[in-house]
């Protein structure tokens, strides 16, 4: 018996009857021989972790553009916090922790530079729209490894595609990531907003604090414990009505006071303008795209989709660098080149 087969046997013996077992995966689009050491979801997790798209997340905006300080979240630290919250819940419920981690690490791979500001611009410019969850799937299916993709299992791709709150994954593990994503961004965006003095703890409505907790730590603890308590020995991932409603109200509070706050989002119009101008530039100068994207232009895909792929893969710094190169007079550049 191989190490992988031994690990699959252990899943049978230790995981919940509701868990997604590695050996029951629907598989990959392209057949591959099984690894002798790693079950399929562990192999997927490793592929995502070693991907270029994952490494670029460290230099992509979460909420605050170019914040003054080293402790504000980036898209990468957000991803890691989602993963940790999701793994805690999955382990407590005896679900497949490795599948949860793979979905969590891959869920935002398709995010644009400058956070949702960049996403909104591409969505408005593309005839077929642009949504970061769909772009994350496109990244792992087509864009990584010079166009070959990562060939991930169906369960991981399903969780990545359906992590947004308006959608619903087909596995309990995917449902855990879906809730963990919402919990993570509300929790850490509030923490960052307090650090940036956009919010104070006293601004948070008292009734919400009575239900969820009086500090960011207490609120995170309440939300995770509530999911575990209400999902144990069930075939769903749920919260109590009281806590779910409080979380929804807290999310609304964050939109009113942080996500749409002119102080927190004061530079967003500039970021949007950069993305829009880069889009039009590459539509008219496709020869400036990298070799991989030039090859894709020879296929059946629309030019705007390939240009969106290229821009979505940029880090904040790279987008700024290319904008400076194409649109600023040489004498205006910081280094004078």
How would you describe what is shown here?
- With 337 residues, the chain is mainly alpha-helical.
- It has two domains: 3-31 and 45-259, Hypothetical protein af1432, CATH 1.10.3210; 268-332, no CATH class.
- Helices cover 60% and strands 0% of the residues.
- The protein has helices at 3-14, 40-49, 52-56, 75-93, 97-106, 115-125, 132-147, 154-161, 172-195, 206-212, 216-231, 241-259, 268-284, 291-297, 303-312, 316-327.
- The longest helix is centred in the middle third of the chain and has 24 residues, at 172-195.
- The chain is flat and about 65 Å long.
Summarize the structure.
It is built from 16 helices and no strands. The chain is mainly alpha-helical.
